[in-house]
Amino acid sequence: MQLKSRIMLIVLLALALLVAVFGALGWYGEQRWSQRYNDALLQGQRIAWDRLQNESLDRQDALARRLLEDPAFQDMRAPSAQQRIDALLAEAVRHAPGLRIDVLGSRGALLATTEPGIDPQPLAEAAWVAAAQSAPGGVRGLSQVAPRQYDWIAVRGFGDGALAVGQDVAQRLPELASYLGGDIFLVNMRGAEAVGTRPGTLAATGATVPVRSPQVLVQEAPGSGAPALQIVSQPVANPDRRVVGVLVWMQDVSAAYRSDRLFGLVAIGAALGFAAVLALGLLAYMRHAMEPLTRSVGVLQALANGSTEASLDHGEEDAEDESGAIARGVAAIRSELLNLETLRQERIRTRRQQERLIRDQLRSLAESLDPGSREEILAALGSTAEPPPAALAEAAQQQPAAAPTTNQLAELAGILGRMSGLVSNQQNRLLKLLRELQAAMQTQAMLASLQQELEIARQMQLSILPRSAPDMAEVDIAATMIPAKEVGGDFYDYFPIDAEHLALVVADVSGKGVPAAFFMAISRTLLKSNALFLQSPGATIAALNDQLCAENDQMMFVTVFYGVLHLKSGRLVYVNAGHNPPVRLTGGTAGYFPRGTNMALAVMDGQEYTEGQVVLAPGETLLLYTDGVTEATNAQGELFGEDALLHAMAAVGADPAAGGHAAAVTRRVVQAVRSFEAGAAQADDITVVALTYQGLRS
To answer: Does residue 626 sit in the same domain as residue 517?
Structure first.
């Protein structure tokens, strides 16, 4: 590495370190400010929640105290006491939505309640009843009374038991949402949304809410223009101080979030721009300062390569700085090299005379060899012939002064040694050619046998594929498979499951050749047996995956698109296990199915496979294919691609003669691929299956 490059590298590293330090300080300050802001959000949420909870519990406690003033609670064994208590409870909850009142015995047994149902569970636990009887202020707090219901509960004790008043939290969450802004949710201890101002909104975000610790996060929904949501969560406890849920406050902070992110990007861009301008300025200064040294180094390199014509510019030797000292040293070296060149030319002339005499003697000896060997020796002698004086002078000028000239005497000695071994070498070559010919004949015989066996395997593979379309008037099916080798790893199938359902499958086994063909045959057999037994696409593919994983020592895998078509309605239920998305052709419009998220088969057992569903209208065409179509290449190595496939399908739909005919679709798609390849070798198996739904036939 040059000196100026090393200096620039050191300066740039120092500049990068400075930018990194300031960036780290800015990031640390941002984190501290963010933590304080998050603490303020959590505190505000807690204050608003406590205020709403205490307000509701105060009302419930006042209602409980007012009810307990009735004489019926002084002696509940009186004949009319039970009727009087029931009437009081019914009147209390008549105009209070979400309010529930329970009368509990001293051991927590439910004596009376406003909750309808055959066997309602008490609002309060036995321990709360005992605590309410001993505490003057009773027991109050939050409780999860059902998987999707939380109540604020106020328990007041009396002589023979306790009175529990519960208020459904969901009824008052809109008040908290109106005060804080946004939406309010309660999440259970499993992290699932229980109640909220807009049910299902929190679950739709996909956010993971911790159940034991407070958290503030900003989650940007996927998609362009999607809102950024701020989620503030903290646990809430029941009267026993046990956490029973999580209070979640969610609000749209898109404007502030995008503004902060834009400011950060602008700040980073400004810092990088400043660093780039500074680096370019340093580079320009170093280039100007190091220019005299660069010219001196160039002259030294030319002298090292044997060119004494190179010299410094006029006046450079007179400079008083370090560059002038280096220039004077370079001039002295050039003078010494000129003297050495004169001596070297004299030595070369003397040696050329000796080489000429030896070469003439070797030519005379070569006449006694066989024609092939003689030509070889004469050619070698010709390659070492003495060049003319003009060429010799030019070569001497181009050769480095410090490097020795070519030792042609040693080359001539080597030619003499080669002559002595030519006879034995010729015999050895003949024996080697005979052995190679024998081995080639054996290899050719083995190759012919192997090709015959591969042709038999190809015919067997094609024989297990469907040979004709199913006898069903509702569909028109056509298929084509072109293996890249004699046998391939693609397969397709279509077969009726019952009188109203038709199974349709296209798959691609990893790799090509015989191993892929065997794995394909096993996969097809297992798939068909599972399909006829299980019928559901998701269950069929899951069972097939487990079976393939059980005996997969070669670690092969297979991508599958498997669907079941209801012939009367056109509803297609399918599973895409890592395969290319099919193309749906409606009139002259072609589009891909949504890309699947399922894993390929034989990768990992115990997988669940998600089903998809579409409804085909009469006249619509479905194209299934393998990656040999979209990944076909031409002579320039370009891929056919998914866009070209869509264009080919749209062209089929726009052609009245081809529309609605599955055979025309497969033929046109294969023609489009072959036209794109333009004679290039086929890289992968090509499989195309077209299905045109004709609709219900009378």
So the answer is: yes
The domain in which residue 97 lies consists of: 4-254
pTM of the model as a whole: 0.43
Contact criterion met (CB below 8 Å) for 53 and 153: no
3-state helix, strand, coil in the chain (%, to 5): 50, 20, 30
pLDDT of residue 587: 79
Sheet strands (E) in 183-301: 183-187, 193-196, 215-220, 228-237, 243-252
Per residue in 196-240, pLDDT (tens digit) is 999 988 888 888 888 888 999 888 766 556 788 889 999 999 998
**CA angle 377-383-389, nearest 5°?**
135
The confidence score (pLDDT) of residue 667 equals: 92
- Could you tell me if 317 and 332 are in contact, meaning their C-beta atoms sit under 8 angstroms apart? no
Q: Are 236 and 142 in contact (CB under 8 A)?
A: yes
Q: Write out pLDDT tens, residues 8-26.
A: 788 788 888 888 888 888 8
**pLDDT for 54:** 94
Q: Is residue 289 part of a domain?
A: no
Q: What is the largest CA-CA distance in the chain?
A: 148
| CA–CA gap between residue 355 and residue 343 (Å, rounded) | 19
Q: How many CB atoms lie within 10 A of CB 618?
A: 13
The alpha-carbon radius of gyration of the chain (Å, integer) is: 45
Q: Determine the pLDDT at residue 653.
A: 83
Mean pLDDT taken over the chain: 83
The two three-digit tokens of residue 319, written as one number: 């400079």
> pLDDT band at 692, cuts 50/70/90?
very high
| Residue 466, both tokens | 């469907």
Which residue, among 36, 35, 45, has the nearest Cα to 233 in the 3D structure?
45
Q: Which long-range contacts link 320-328 to residues 24+ away (Cβ below 8 Å)?
A: 322/293, 323/292, 323/293, 323/296, 326/293, 326/296, 327/292, 327/296
> What's the CA angle centered on 428, arms 427 and 429, to 5 degrees?
90
Using alpha carbons only, give the angle 356, 359, 364 rounded to the nearest 5 degrees.
130
Q: Compute the distance between CA of residue 623 and CA of residue 344 in angstroms, rounded to an integer.
A: 80
Amino acid in position 674: R
Arithmetic mean of pLDDT, 143-166:
90
Q: Which pair of tokens denotes residue 208?
A: 């993971």
Contact assessment for residue 228 and residue 257, using Cβ atoms and an 8 Å cutoff: yes
Cα–Cα nearest to 138, from 166, 114, 163 = 163
How much is the pLDDT for 599? 92
Of 190, 222, 254, the domain-final residue: 254
Q: What is the pLDDT of residues 561-619, one digit of tens each?
A: 999 999 999 999 999 999 999 999 987 889 999 988 899 998 998 899 999 999 999 98
Contacts with 53 (C-beta within 8 Å, 6 or more apart), sequence order: 142, 152
Residue 285 included in any domain = no
> Looking at residue 391, what is its pLDDT?
54
φ/ψ (deg, to 5) at 695: 90, 170
How much of the chain, in percent, has pLDDT values that exceed 90?
A: 29
Residue 17 lies in a domain: yes
Give burial (CB, 10 Å; 0-12/13-18/19+) of 347. Answer: exposed
- Report the pLDDT value the prediction gives residue 469, as an integer from 0 to 100: 78
Answer yes or no: do 487 and 435 share one domain: no
Alpha carbon distance 490, 521 (integer Å) = 10
Domain check: are 233 and 248 in the same one? yes
444 pLDDT tier (thresholds 50, 70, 90): confident
